[in-house]
UniProtKB/TrEMBL annotation:
It is a single-pass type II membrane protein. This is Polyisoprenyl-teichoic acid--peptidoglycan teichoic acid transferase TagU. Residues 1-12 are cytoplasmic. Residues 89-230 form the Cell envelope-related transcriptional attenuator domain. InterPro entries: LytR/CpsA/Psr_CW_biosynth (IPR050922), LytR_CpsA_psr (IPR004474), TagU (IPR023734). Its EC number is 2.7.8.-. It comes from Niallia oryzisoli.
Amino acid sequence: MRADKKHKKGKRWLKIIVLLFVLLIAGGGAYAYSVYQSLTTAVDTMHQPIEREKSEKRPETITLTKAEDPDPFSILLLGVDERQGDRGRSDTMIVLTVNPEMNSIKMLSIPRDTRTEIVGRGVEDKINHAYAFGREEMSMATVENLLDIPIDYFIKVNMEGFKDIVDAVGGIQVTNDLDFSEEGHHFSKGQLSLNGEKALAFVRMRKEDPNGDFGRQERQRQVIQGIISKGVSLGSLTRFDDIFEALGKNVRTNLTFDEMMDIQRNYRDAAASVEQLQMIGQSKKIGGVYYIIVPDEEIQKVQTELKTHLEINKTGQSSSPAPAGG
């Protein structure tokens, strides 16, 4: 298994949101106000409240606003490939726990084929099917059940949106280590310049890759990293309207604008230490379908580490007060 590679991808998803703040800070005077107006409009579009009952794993209410001793919280990052007429599946599922007192983030990438109970369906299936069955709410509930921790927020990125976002930043550069063709485009080895259409084909290819999904995840990481590199450059400031519009179309989160600002203000030091966690399983064919089976002891090990990081005691209570999730 090469699951450790998959666990190294999630930080790039979070940086898509951080990009908003970088562009805001970069402006000045009337120009900064113009950026601010575009930013708030984009965030309003991105904001997607969810309909779910308060989690029993989060009996108290957290707050992000405290300048002194703000509460630990968790985010589920979803990378979803939604095409016309298809509800999509969450091909990327990454859990981040953020602890401001420890100044650290723990990041767990969940293999998309992990066999687990789909909460609300009463069946065991691949965990990425939870999104197809019940979108963000069922994904959050299913991950909560698997990891035995509260999931406070979600951030969803539509993989189809790579095209718009790449074009908005003016194209990107990637390093390709596999010669292949996909959707009418040929990708040779070496440094490549990609527009939005080519970038989308680049991240979609899987069947020709000997590393399967892990190879696809690496290409996704490169495209996201390319977007970030172009997005934070001074040249991108002339494109902020296009960038915010693309993000507004393709990113959804139950975080509000104020909560994003609180995280940027009170939790920024935590980003200095990001630890990758592994959830190791074995492939197994059940009923003609391949799954990843994660042993109970492996799950319990990850649960304990995340609970400690979120400061949750044995009864499931949070040791410091935290959100209802939008």
